[in-house]
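Supplementary Methods. Inverse-folding protocol.

Structures were first reduced to a discrete structure-token string of length 86. This string, shown here, constituted the complete conditioning input.
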């Protein structure tokens, strides 16, 4: 149960942050990247959910979800680091 609650919160946070980046001038240029990554996170989750009953495909879908999620975290951390240096 906690896994599902955590994943739903991650999905909501990534989408809401991507939308919210448009209102801050420091993050505005990053909004397109954030929206693309958030869309990929949602797509990877849907793919993972649809393949839940097949062992091999589920494993691949899960790895895709985790990879895209880590890419999101990495992109956000790089942007935060760049903003901190300004």
């Amino acid at each position: 149960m906690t896994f599902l609650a955590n994943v739903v919160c991650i999905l909501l946070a990534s989408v809401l942050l991507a939308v919210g980046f448009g209102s801050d001038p420091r993050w505005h240029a990053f909004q397109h990247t954030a929206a693309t990554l958030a869309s990929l996170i949602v797509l990877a989750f849907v793919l993972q959910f649809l393949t839940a009953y097949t062992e091999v495909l589920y494993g691949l879908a899960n790895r895709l979800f985790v990879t895209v999620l880590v890419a999101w975290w990495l992109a956000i951390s790089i942007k935060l680091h760049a903003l901190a240096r300004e």
